[in-house]
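User: Run a structure prediction on this.
Assistant: Running it now.
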Amino acid sequence: MSDPGTPGVSVVICAYTEDRWEDVLAAVASVRAQSRPALEILLVVDHNRDLLDRLGKEYKDPPDGAVVRVLANAGPRGLSAGRNTGIAASRGGIVAFLDDDAVAERDWLKHFAEAYDDPRVMAVGGRTEPVWASGRRPDWFPEEFDWVVGCAYRGLPRGRVRVRNVLGGNASFRREAFDAAGGFATGIGRDGNKRPLGGEETELCIRLSRARPDAVLLIDDRAVIHHRVPEVREHFRYFRTRTYAEGLSKALVARSVGAEKGLESERRYTTRVLPAGVVRGLRDALLARPGGAGRAGAIVAGVLTAAGGYVVGSVRARRGGVTFSVVGLGEGGGRG
C-alpha cells in the first residue's frame, strides 16, 4: 500500500484508435497491478466516439482497484490536448502518463512516488524499453535512435539523475508544475492523423524550469515500461519520416524557448553520442557483425534528415506558417 503521507497518483492514458484496443486494456491492467496503487486511471479518448462508448462500457463496473474514468478529449485533436484534459480532471497530487500501447512494470509508480519525497522535484521520467513486433531489433536500427519509436535511447544517463526534460510516454509531474507553467502546448505534439511530431514534453519542461528555477527534473531508469513497436515502425521509411518530424518539432521548441535551451541536450547528443555510434557501427562492419554498416549509415541519415526538418520548420516558424498555444489548466477536483 502507498504511504498515506505521500500524494496520490493519477495515471493518464490517452487513446485514439480501436486498432489498439487490446493494448489499451493491457496498459490499464498494468496500472491496476502496481505495487503502489494508483489513485485513479483516466482514459482520455481523442475525438473517437465509438472508442469512447466502447471503453465507457468496458469500465462501467470495473473490478476492485483503481477507479477507471473514461473521458473525451475536451480540446483540439491531438496528444497534448488529451493530456491536458486528463490533468484538468485528475485528483492526484502527482499526475503520471503512460502510452496506450505500453505496459508498466509492477514498481513503476513506486519509483516515481519515492522521488517526490524531495519537495523540489517537479517531474520524474522513467525508462521505456521497445517490444519489437518482429521479435527482435532490426539489425540496421541503431540504439542511439530508439527515441524514433518512443523508447529510451543510448546516450541517456543511467540511474536517478537530473535532466532537462522527461519523455512524455513514461513520465510524471507534481500538480504544482502545471499550476506554475500551464499545460502541454498544442500544435507541437502528436495528432494520430498527421505527421509523427513530438517535443511537447521538452517545451513544457523548459517552460517549467523557467517558471520555477528551483525545480528538479529527474529520470529514474528503474521506472520501466515496455512499449510495443508495430511492424510499420521497424522500416527505414518510418525512421526517415520520424526523424524529419523531430526536426520540425525542435524548430517549434526553439521558437518557444530559444535555441540555447531548446537545443542544449541535442548538441551534446549530436557531438558526442552519435559520432561514437558511427564509429561503433563501422567497427562492427569491419568485424563482420550483422548490421554494422547499416547502423552507421542510419545514424548519418537520421542526423541529416532531422537537420533538414529543423531548417524547414525554422523557415515556417519565421513566416508564421506554424503556430502553437499554451493553455492554463483549471482545477481538477480534490487533491489526493
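The first strand starts at residue 9 and ends at 15.
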